[in-house]
Design goal:
The protein has a domain of 212 residues: 3-Layer(aba) Sandwich (Beta-lactamase), CATH 3.40.710. The chain has 328 residues and is of the alpha+beta class. Helix 2 runs antiparallel to helix 11. The strands form 4 sheets. Strands 3-2-10-9-8 form a 5-stranded antiparallel sheet, sandwiched between helices. A two-stranded antiparallel ribbon has the order 1-11. A two-stranded antiparallel ribbon has the order 4-5. It is built from 11 helices and 11 strands. 41% of the residues are buried.
């Protein structure tokens, strides 16, 4: 009798161990995610990470708004954009990517790197003499030769209205000239460990060597948004800049059409050329979450970006590591 009881005890113990093993196997990815989140304190806004995004489907949760998905009529697997990258900035968590490493033309999103180099090389109140840039194509705010403009005014022109003349004014005024300035842009790309990015010009004109990827643009954008001045500039719907004399005024209107339409949009940059098609870098702050979306080679960047941000909040839930383990 004692022996039978002993055998049953071992069988019961074995069953318990098996159940635990199955549980751990099925929830391993969630537990690892929670563990990594506990160890990772990355946040460009210096806010300690407490919650991380997890797909609702991992817990068989339905959207809180069941009609939302039907209204969207949106299939994330059939986007016109050649490349897409979505990240939860506060936790550095990739939420979605489609050809995120694909090398494409960045168009005027190049200017976020131009701005980073300008912030490194100049003071905001430095006054620069505008060189002869009348032959620069594309977006312009009408800068003329001999005009004296502060760096902060040129940065606003370049980032709000995507002014190519302002980008070249910043680069040509550098002690190393245009080539020296672009060299610094590529040095920063190396410093950021960007694998798909190289620049030939500061404005984003199509060129056989000018290239980047959605993933690389996300890295540059996060660095860009750490700068308080630059972050405020790209969040402005419109502005007015003047030369040093205060006589000449240039009225600026942001090329990012979602600004002011969707109140959660905080930036950051558009890009359009014949070769690149439509490029858009957008950061949203919705429900306390900072979400970065990059679309490249798009046929409808604003519509797809709007749909993508709704998709994020329809598909993900933010939980603490403890909640993840508990639910798993």
């Amino acid at each position: 009798m004692k022996r039978i009881f002993s055998n049953n005890k071992y069988k019961l113990f074995g069953i318990v161990i098996l159940v635990i093993a199955i549980f751990l196997y099925k929830s391993a990815d969630l537990i690892i995610m929670a563990k990594n989140s506990t160890e990772k304190k990355y946040d460009v806004y210096t806010k300690q990470v407490s919650e991380i995004p997890v797909l609702k489907s991992k817990f068989n949760l339905q959207s809180e708004d069941a009609t939302k998905s039907a209204i969207l009529d949106f299939d994330i697997n059939h986007l016109s954009s050649k490349s897409v990258y979505i990240e939860d900035v506060d936790t550095a968590t990739q939420l979605f990517e489609k050809n995120g490493e694909r090398v494409l033309l960045p168009a005027s999103t190049t200017k976020i790197m131009t701005a980073l180099v300008a912030r490194q090389e100049y003071k905001l109140d430095d006054a620069l003499i505008i060189p002869d840039i009348t032959k620069i194509d594309g977006f312009s705010v009408g800068l003329f030769k001999g005009e004296k403009m502060r760096v902060d005014q040129l940065l606003k022109a370049m980032l709000i209205q995507s002014s190519n003349d302002a980008a070249y004014a910043l680069a040509l005024n550098h002690p190393g000239g245009l080539d020296g300035f672009v060299k610094l842009m590529n040095q920063k790309a190396t410093d950021f460990n960007l694998k798909s990015t190289y620049f030939e010009n500061p404005a984003g004109f199509d060129n056989d060597s000018q290239r980047s990827s959605a993933h690389d643009l996300a890295i540059i954008s996060k660095e860009f948004m750490k700068d308080d001045f630059l972050r405020l500039v790209v969040g402005a719907k419109k502005d007015v800049i003047t030369d040093e004399s205060g006589i000449y005024k240039h009225y600026l209107y942001n090329t990012h059409e979602l600004l002011g339409i969707d109140q959660s949009v905080v930036g950051i940059k558009t890009g359009t050329t014949e070769g690149a098609h439509q490029v858009l870098i957008t950061q949203f702050n919705r429900e306390g979450r900072n979400i970065l979306i990059i679309v490249m080679g798009s046929d409808d960047r604003y519509e797809e970006t709007s749909q993508l941000i709704d998709w994020v909040f329809d598909e993900f839930i933010w939980l603490t590591p403890e909640q993840i383990i508990e639910k798993s």
